[in-house]
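A favour, since you know our structure tokens better than I do. It will help me judge whether the discrete encoding reads sensibly. The space below this message is yours for that.
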Amino acid sequence: MTYEQKLELLEDITSKEFLDDALSNAKTWCWKNLSKHLEGFIGDFDFRIFNYKIDNSKAGLGYDMFFDEKENGLIRVCTKQLEHYQERENYIKENSTVRRGDIGDKSVIIYGAVEVDSESMFVHEITEYVLLNPNLFDIKIYIDKYFGMAHKYAYEMENINRQERGLQLWPR
């Protein structure tokens, strides 16, 4: 099912059904793909530990998803931030008519709205969690490549997931 079909069916990206589906797909994607894309990842990890809870306590601070500090595997989802992203996406779609063009003597690409996508956001959070656990990696590769770089690689995994599903990549 495409992203557009999911939106038509569920309409609300903050609904329990939509978030349940997004997390389930993200866990499956990570289980199948992280060992392909993260060098040294041992892959012996139970992705079923991840679940989510709606928590709007950090609304307005830029948090869309974040891990609970006390409960292992719990991802807190700020639906207010997701709604803001969706409103921004819709505004850009409605008010942006130029995608490619010239500004003065420069040829430019004007990026349109990046689709709000809970699944790739969950992929990002799960990847950060995995990367912050060095015991899941060949330790030499982990130290050489990933130490201190969890967000960078989580961002890359999120965009690989988005690309595979035909969504626009998050800009750097």
Q: What stands out?
A: The CA atoms of residues 130 and 136 lie 7 Å apart. The longest strand covers residues 51-54. The chain has one domain: 3-164.
